[in-house]
Protein 1
Amino acid sequence: MEKVLVTKYGNLSISQDAISDLVRLAVKEVKGVALIQDNPSQVLNFLKKDSQEMVSFDSDSDALNLTLNVTVLNGFNIGELAVKIQEKVKSALETMLEIKVKDVNIKIVGIKHD
C-alpha cells in the first residue's frame, strides 16, 4: 500500500516502505526504545527493511494513522517514552513528507531487561 498525494503538478506516491523507514529512523532517536515489532511474534531489528505492517493507513482521509508495537528498555517512564515517540514520528512525517498524521498509536508489547 502507498500514500498518494495530489499536488498542483501531479501525483506524489510515497511507498509504505519509505514511510516505515522514516518512522523507524524517528523512533530510533528516542532513548529508551529497544525494538519496533510488526506483531508480537515477529521482532523487527531497526536495520531490517521488512516492516510493511508497521504503518497502517486510514483510507477515509488525507491523514495517516499509525500503530507501532514497541519494546522499551527497563527503567524508563513508559508514558513519557510513548509521548516522545509520538512527537518524533509525527514531526518527522509532517516535516519531511509534508503529509498529515492523525494518530500515532503506541502499543508497548514488552520491556527489555539489561
Note: Residues 39-52 have pLDDT under 50 and may be disordered.
Protein 2
Amino acid sequence: MIQPELDFSRMKYPDLPGAKTGGASQAAADSMIRSAGKLRRQVVETLQQFPLGMTADECAAYIGVSILAIRPRFSELVRDGQITGTPERRLNGSGRAATVWRLVSAEEKGSISTDA
C-alpha cells in the first residue's frame, strides 16, 4: 500500500511530536513524526483489551516497543481526552509507583462535551 505524502509544514506540537530544545531533542521528535499516530492507535487498541487499565511500562512491554516511545503517546492521549488515570498505582521498571491508565468511556466523553 502506498502511503500518502503528509504535509507537516503547517503542523506543530502538540499535533506532532515536539521538543523543548533543538539538537538531539528535536532530532528525536522528528524521528517520531511518522510513528506517533500508529503508536497512539496501538496504545488505544491495547487498552481496549485491558479495560481495568495498565501502566505505560506495561503497555510498552505488551506492544514490544521502548517505554521512551510510549510515554509521550500516553501524554498525548490524555491531552486528547482518550485515556485517564485511575486511582491505582503499580511499580514500574524503575521501582516507582506508576499510574494505571484506562480508556475514557463513551459516557464520560459525552458528559465532558455536554458540561461545557
Note: The longest strand covers residues 83-91.
Protein 3
Amino acid sequence: MDHILSPRVLGPIQELFSEENIDQVNHILLNQCWKQLPGCEHWGPEQIERIHMAVLKLSAGDLDELDHAVALAKQDWRDLLVAAGFANDPEAHRTWQPKPTNLDYHLLGVSLFFRD
C-alpha cells in the first residue's frame, strides 16, 4: 500500500513549518511515523491522521520537537495522544487548529513596529 498524508494533515504542516522544511516533515511522517508504529502497519491515511496531528501539535513547528514526538509515538503512540490531549476524544484532532509559525507579516500588511 502506498502511503499518502491525509489532506487534514497537510494543512497544519504548511501552517507550522517553513516552506523549506515541508518536504522533510512529510518524509518523516510517511517514513518514520506510520508503518513503524506498533499496530499501525495497515492503517490508511484517515486512520493514522490522529497520530500525525498529535505529532504536529507537540512539534509546534520545530523539527527537533517533531523528532521527539515521533520518538514518543514509536515508543507508545497512546502516550503521544495523551500528551497532545487527543486521547479521550477520538475526534479531538479534527478540531485542533495550529498556531501558524511561518507567517510572513510583511505580506499580510501587518506592521510589527508601533510608532508614536
Note: Residues 7-108 form one domain.
Protein 4
Amino acid sequence: MLRRIIDISDMVPKLENAPNRIRELRRKHGLTLQDVADRVGCKANEVSRFETGARELSIGWARRIARAFGTDIASLLNDEDNFDRLDEQERAVIDAMRTASSRDRIAVQRVAESLTSYTAENDDEPRRSA
C-alpha cells in the first residue's frame, strides 16, 4: 500500500502573527494550557484555540482569561489592536510625570507637544494614534 504524505503547514495558523497575547502571557507566567484552563473553567484545547485564533475571543471569555493572568482585557490584545498599550520607555515617562511637580509636568507636556508637532511635520515615519 502506497501512503501519501500531505503537507498541511499552510493550513495551520502561524503564531508569529498570533491574534492575541494569550500564549505570550501564559508563558510569561510559567503556566501550561491546563493551568490556564483550570483558572478559566474550560478545557486546555479551548485555551489553545483562543491562542491561535481558531476560536474567536468574546468579551466574556476575554474577561475570564484576563482575570486568570491578573490583568485587564486590553493586555490580551496585540499592539496593532491596542494603541493604549505602553512599552517600557513610555511607561517610565508616565511614571516620572506622575511623581514630578505640577510645574515640571506642564513643562514636560509642552516639550512633548512641540516634539510631536515637529516630528509630524518633518518625518514620514508612521505614528501610533492616540
Note: Residues 102-122 form the longest helix (21 residues).
